[in-house]
Amino acid sequence: MMKRTHKKEHNISVIKLFDDVAKHCKSKRAKVVLKNIIKRPEMALLTSMSGVLSHYLDVKQDEVNILVYQAKNKDIIDHGRWLVLIAYLLKNPDLSINVWLNPVNDSEDDVTNLRPLVDFIIDNFHQGKVKTHLVKGSFKELVDHIGMDKLDLIYNHNPTIQDHNTFESRESLHQCIKNGVRYVIAESTPVTLLFKLAIFEVWGISTSDGIYNNPYFVTLQKGVSSQYRYMGHAISLDTIIDEQPELIDADTHSLLDTMANSIIQCVNVGENLHQTPKKAGSIVNIFSNAEFNTHTNVFKCSHSGDTVTIKLDDVADFPSEAPTTEISLDVARVSWGLVIYARYLTELSRVKTLRKKAVV
């Protein structure tokens, strides 16, 4: 099991969930083990995916079929067996859970020393009704293999530009949405999640829903080990906004890479990525420590007691109307903010370079 690397308040939701598991177990040994581990912050890694998925599943279902597409290492902890927790979250211990895990870049099963415990719980108290499979193939191949009519939910944690950037994959994605299959994406903060939604909007997919705040997680904060920054927020894609969208071309790819770099820099300096850009008068609060004056075109950023102001010309207007769905306005504002932040970083680097040359 991963070492505890920080001191944070215990996640009460996680503790209550494992309390429910302990009550269902008739083994004294299992109860003792669960009691000793539930207050470890890393337990959120074992509960976060189940917390997201259960929110989008029908409590009346007798069986659920889930594809975890492009699964990262922490998505397949102990062969995905901890997804048995979905049964407890849905208050249905008799639920049959079938999960197909599609590892990204040949990610391997991340086995912990708690694997015997979860196997014991499933074998003794769930009559083998939890089945997980590691599968490879393209998105279309996976959907065809499982059966679109059988699929209840597709889950993609931390999606990338490459996930559906072929005509075949995009068409299969559109068909899933048309058939009512939920496609859920998740990220550690609202800003990073809305950035990922921007990628899907290029592929013609959005949502009529809002952001779900998953209680079974450890929040993204400066000073918290990256292994705990996991699945804090999710969105279920359910709306087609463009029947024939283009694939992501080189220019769009470059722009998205620039925005992604802005996020990395924001995380490095401890920006609060839980709030989306908002405008009050002529001031747009991009993030907690960054703002842009639309009248003067001055960007101001403050970190560690230092304040930097730089003028940026030819800045696009701050988005004020939703392009398609209601949440698309937040997507547009986050995209605008990340592009402005990238321009600030470029200009700051240029100014520093000129100053160094002047000194020499």
SSE inventory with pairings:
Elements (H helix, E strand, L loop, with lengths): L11 H13 L3 H10 L5 H13 L7 E9 L13 H5 L6 E8 L11 H11 L4 E5 L4 H8 L6 E5 L9 H12 L3 E6 L2 H13 L2 E2 L5 E2 L19 E5 L1 E2 L9 H19 L9 E3 L2 E5 L2 E4 L4 E6 L2 E6 L16 H32 L1
Parallel strand pairs: 1-2, 1-4, 2-3, 4-5
Antiparallel strand pairs: 5-8, 6-9, 7-8, 10-11, 11-12, 12-13, 13-14
Count of alpha and pi helical runs: 10
- Percent of residues in beta strands? 15-25%
Average pLDDT confidence is: 87
Name the structural class.
alpha/beta
Describe the fold and architecture.
Helix 1 runs antiparallel to helix 2, helix 8 packs across helix 10 and helix 9 packs across helix 10. The termini are far apart. The N terminus is likely disordered. With 360 residues, this protein is of the alpha/beta class. The chain is built from ten helices and 14 strands. Strand 1, helix 4 and strand 2 form a beta-alpha-beta unit. It is 38% helix and 19% strand. The chain has a seven-stranded mixed beta sheet, sandwiched between helices.
Structure at a glance:
This protein is α/β, with parallel strands linked by helices and 360 residues long. The protein has helices spanning 12-24, 28-37, 43-55, 85-89, 115-125, 139-146, 167-178, 190-202, 250-268, 328-359, and strands spanning 63-71, 96-103, 130-134, 153-157, 182-187, 205-206, 212-213, 233-237, 239-240, 278-280, 283-287, 290-293, 298-303, 306-311.
